[in-house]
Amino acid sequence: MIIRDYYVEKIKNYINKPLIKVITGMRRVGKSFIVRQIIEYLQEEGTEPGQILYINKESLDFDFIKTYRDLNFYVKEYFGNSTKQRYLFIDEIQEIELWEKTISSLFAENRYDITITGSNSRLLSSELSSLLSGRFVEINIYALSFKEFLKFRGEHSIDREQEFLHYLKFGGFPVIHQFDLNEELTYEYIQSLYNTILLKDVISRYNIRNVRLFQDLISFLFSNTGQIFSSNSISRYLKNQKKTVSVDTIQNYIAHLESSYMIHKVQRYDIRGKKLLELYEKYYFGDIALKNAVMGYKDEDISGQLENCVFLKLMQENYQVTIGKSDDLEVDFIAEKNGEKLYIQVAYLLESEESRHREFRAFDIIKDNYPKYVLSMDRLPPSNTEGIIRMNIAEFLLK
């Protein structure tokens, strides 16, 4: 088992602290494996097996736990009268009806170290937020970063340029490495996972009836990764396809997809006015291979794929990400964390003077001295011109 150190170390910091660990993320990004790695750590530190309870709601072994009452009874029965510290782990807890009642009750006893995982962002919109305000920490898990991808590739990772092309094509779901990046097997797996997310986490959960229309919306998002648009523009596009749908319905569909972590919305930020803009945004996918598996890999889509890679890296490192906008100029990403900022432009290649001018000119609207990056697939060594760092994207992803 390859340890995903970044997340494991982050979670370990909260063990035996008065906080519920809420691990969230899209299906199959590795939440369960990370939980198992935490359990292994506890065992290595001397925790006895009887002090640890792991409930996986994707396993039929725990199908009998359907409600918060079932959960409470089973947990109490398992630990009995033990006076030792108790470690409770529950995978995909959203499958248990009104689970937050039992979690709140157990937490109040001060005898349980609780870690839960979920594949729905509305996990924290439930009663848990009000019941335990300030007493839980959310840890978002993402698909493999490029650095993690190389770790999983092991001896194959020497040729980083070739491996980056593999990363763009096959994405970061950990399980794909069991197929040794065989294209047919990998895409069949991702297609199956895509269907599971849609059916279980979105269509069934939110009772979507017009499945065909919903799939057309996703196809639009796939085809416009990294492009700015609004719900109105999607509605107009679908009407041109002879499919009438209201803007409210589109907004609901997008919110449902966001809740499954399949897509992430990035708002525009008015750099001069220093405020978020309400209309028009970009959407990026929780894994770049979802589009490739569903619609096929196309070289002409590489610009959007590259932006998606950079966006996911920034999210993995806990940046708040927006799109910079001022008049007709746009900065692909403004990333903020702990009072610091990064400004990033992403391009496929900077072969012409025109393309270089376009990407560098966007920084004309920035008046502070925070780092500014222009990232591309060019093989040239990094350079720094007037405070603007030009860098290969793969090298940036490994920083």
Task: Name some characteristics of this structure.
single chain, alpha/beta, eight-stranded mixed sheet, five-stranded parallel sheet
Overall geometry comes to: globular
**What is the helical fraction, as a range of percent?**
40-55%
Q: Helical segment tally?
A: 15
Sheet-strand content, in percent, reads: 15-25%
Distance between the termini: 24 Å
Compute the average pLDDT: 92
Q: How many β-strands, per DSSP?
A: 13
Return the domain count: 2
Spans of at least 5 consecutive residues whose pLDDT stays below 50 are none
Coarse structural class: alpha/beta
What order do the helices and strands follow?
HEHEHEHEHEHHHHHHEEHHEEEHEEEH
* Main pleated-sheet profile: 8 strands, mixed
Element layout with pairings:
Layout: H1 5-12, E1 20-24, H2 31-44, E2 52-56, H3 68-79, E3 86-91, H4 99-108, E4 112-118, H5 127-131, E5 136-140, H6 146-153, H7 160-170, H8 183-203, H9 211-223, H10 231-240, H11 247-259, E6 263-270, E7 275-285, H12 289-295, H13 302-316, E8 320-326, E9 329-337, E10 340-346, H14 353-361, E11 372-376, E12 383-385, E13 388-392, H15 393-397
Parallel strand pairs: 1-4, 1-5, 2-3, 3-4, 6-8, 10-11, 11-13
Antiparallel strand pairs: 6-7, 8-9, 9-10, 12-13
